[in-house]
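Before going further, learn to read the protein records used in this course. A complete example follows; check for yourself that the lines match position by position.
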Amino acid sequence: MSRTGPRGGRWCRFPVFAMERILDMPRCLCYDGRNDAEVYIMVKTCKRLMVLAAVFVLLVACLPTVTAAPATDTLAGKRVLFVGDSIAAGWRDTGYGHKDMTAKGGWSLRLEKDYNMKVTHAAQPGQSITVIPGRGCILPQMRQYKYDPFDYVILQGGFNDCMGENKAGNDNMNAIPALGIVANSFNVSDFDRSTFSGAFEEFLYYATNDYKHMKIGFIITYKTPLSQYGGITNGVRKTNEGYTQQDYINRQKELLTKWGVPYLDLWGGTASDGKKYSGDIIKVNENGVHFPGGNDNIHLNAAGYDASMPYIAQWMTGLETWTKVPETTTRVIPTIADKPTTTKAKDQPTTTTTTAPVQSPLDGDTTTTEGITTTTGTRAPTKPAATVTATRPVEETETEEAPEESNTMVYVILAVVVGCVILTAVIVILVLLKQKKKS
């Protein structure tokens, strides 16, 4: 066996040889007794090291940058159930060849086309959280897939509850479900399902039981200040209890926090880039930009879905498998009990009159351009409970931070290599100068 090993050759011993010569270079600079052969060997060694260092730098530069996995890679191939009303269904989306005023469009279509997800398009136009005459209910829509395996379950809804009963003509803005109270337990039998709060708790109860081993998230609907759909959907009108659409949105946040379901707040949230979801990303105050326009500034058009889709996808990548927290925590739930109430008789609804053209219930079955009398509720004011026992001490997640690039290791390696190259070059120059001076 040779001294370089059975298959070595001189390059197998070169790293050790190079280190020996580098460590010996300070002596070369200090003593004049070195002969030309020794100096020549050291200089040659340094040149080889410089070549190897340059090659290493090029190889590192060619390596892919170390970054967080993009949403496309994280979501690709995953199975997602998309539940909700016409907004989740993409009712007015015309992108990717989707037919206007049909379901299976919107965000779920883009997850399928752009992010290569396996999508179950469950969302249906006109459906509500609460059981409302003339409308379908989102709960059965969601539960019909409870035996199917999914990686993600994305939920949305609540707009139609703020709009009210689905009737044609001047009655199309009839009673809106009472806001109700937050239950003091997690027992489904304790929920008043005739109210919005009780129905939403029931919805979350079954979502977290049917899909408890999956990643569950809820999309809170964006603001609709230009709404002509009636009810309290423009954010200004109030129910006979004195509540606005903002109060119904706040109640959704309370209950989502109670049940430990993360949500993306398109209503009042801000993205990691500092943009507001309602206003900057989705142009809710501009007629016909991200909506069809005219009497429909409710449903997103293709441009609206395109603008918001990257944020939806990025938020989804941060979702984790839903986990139940032991029922041991008692906390005070913020309430809106101090809202003003009507002074009319208990069961007498308050009314307001508007002359704005109004399209009938969300999803456009019929249309009227007559002035209407709006009945905003028939239930007596209900004072929300102040204290509940909470089992999901989960903080709100209004904004989602996009993962930042992590290039620290690459930069450290490059810095070390460049430093070695510079040091080697300096040593070579000094050796040559020393030898020249000697000669």
About this structure: The mean pLDDT is 76. The longest strand covers residues 215-220.
